[in-house]
Design a protein that fits this description.
The chain has about 350 residues and is α/β, with parallel strands linked by helices. About 30% of the residues lie in helices and about 25% in strands.
Length: about 350
């Protein structure tokens, strides 16, 4: 399994480090490697996350996206992705002055076979959004690159204003999901998967982090923080799919869809392989693989998003099933090959 690299960006003060600290503290058993991308002589953000992260490589002066040699970032990924580190996800916290497009290119263009692009999360200050757009016209461009927009500090605006902000951002960026929250709180399950390895639990004294986690949950029971819920829906089919229809679904996804994963069997003549799918935002990857011995040619897909219309999404996936008796010709695979790494 390749390690997803998640980029967290947003202007200064939007709540990126708060969100990161929440992910580090609130996940259970996930080992997160962090690259803190500060712009300045003192790595204040590094201090904020120090001690809570399993492996961290902190950049000093300058911005990662301004590095001439992409290999500098690759070296960091190599250190974090080495098997003995047992990292499950890598989070790059971009400087408030960083250009997200360059960071995305660096991750997507990396030759490290152990990592893959995990999406761009753009954090927006709900209270300051109008002023931010006026001061930084490039914000609109950044938002259009995002795979997920986190509308942070939602408690600082009225419910009516929050609805208006959602509509304004949606009109700006289209179908990209918008997740409203406070204090950077976002469920880690929306962004990455929990590890499959089992963590043995024996009689032991609770660590400080565990006590803090339990205290937070007790506190939440009495004082629920404002945040959206995410939706996960599964699709299974024993019948093979039409690859053209599946690609059409992915290229024109249902509103709110952030991630899709799983594997598919296609009803194409002479194509008997399993195709592993990873989709984050607009970034789609198919990887051909062999079926395990005794494994049935069953398609299994999982969709994850915020405000995802599950019934409509499942109905569209059912429409991707190839219902004709005759298999499709190889031309039907052209869309899949477009998203297959070479």
């Amino acid at each position: 399994m390749r390690i997803p690299v998640l980029i967290v960006a947003g202007f200064l003060g939007s709540g990126k480090t708060t969100l990161l600290n929440h992910l580090l503290r609130d996940n259970r058993g996930t080992r997160i490697g962090v690259v803190v991308n500060d712009f300045g002589a003192i790595n204040i953000d590094s201090m904020l996350v120090a001690g809570q992260v399993d492996a961290m490589v902190s950049l000093g002066n300058g911005c990662v996206c301004c590095a001439v040699d992409v290999g500098e970032l690759d070296d960091m990924f190599t250190r974090l992705a080495q098997p003995r580190a047992k990292i499950d996800v890598i989070v790059v916290e971009a400087s408030g002055l960083a250009e997200p497009r360059n960071l995305i290119r660096m991750v997507v263009g990396s030759e490290n076979p152990r990592i893959r692009y995990g999406g761009l999360v753009e954090v927006v200050d709900a209270e300051q959004f109008p002023d931010s757009r006026e001061r930084h016209p490039e914000l609109a461009t950044h938002l259009r690159l995002a795979d997920l927009v986190v509308l942070n500090k939602a408690d600082r605006v009225s419910p009516e204003r929050l609805v208006g902000l959602r509509q304004e951002i949606t009109e700006l960026i289209g179908q990209v999901p918008v997740y409203a929250t406070t204090h950077g709180r976002i469920d880690p399950g929306l962004l990455f998967d929990e590890p499959l390895r089992e963590i043995p639990r024996v009689a032991e004294q609770l660590s400080f982090d565990e006590l803090l986690h339990d205290h937070d949950h007790d506190d939440h029971a009495e004082h629920r923080h404002l945040h959206d819920d995410y939706t996960s829906v599964s699709f299974t089919s024993d019948r093979e799919l039409d690859p053209r229809r599946l690609v059409e679904f992915l290229e024109d996804p249902p509103p709110g869809l952030f991630r899709a994963k799983g594997f598919a069997a296609f009803g194409v003549a002479a194509e008997r392989r399993k195709f592993v799918l990873h989709m984050v935002g607009r970034h789609i990857v198919f990887e051909p693989d062999a079926w395990s011995r005794g494994e049935s040619r069953t398609t299994r897909l999982v969709l994850i998003g915020a405000g995802l219309p599950t019934d409509a999404a499942l109905a569209r996936l059912h429409d991707t099933v190839h219902t004709d008796a005759e298999p499709l010709d190889e031309q039907a695979m052209l869309g899949v090959w477009r998203y297959t790494p070479h």
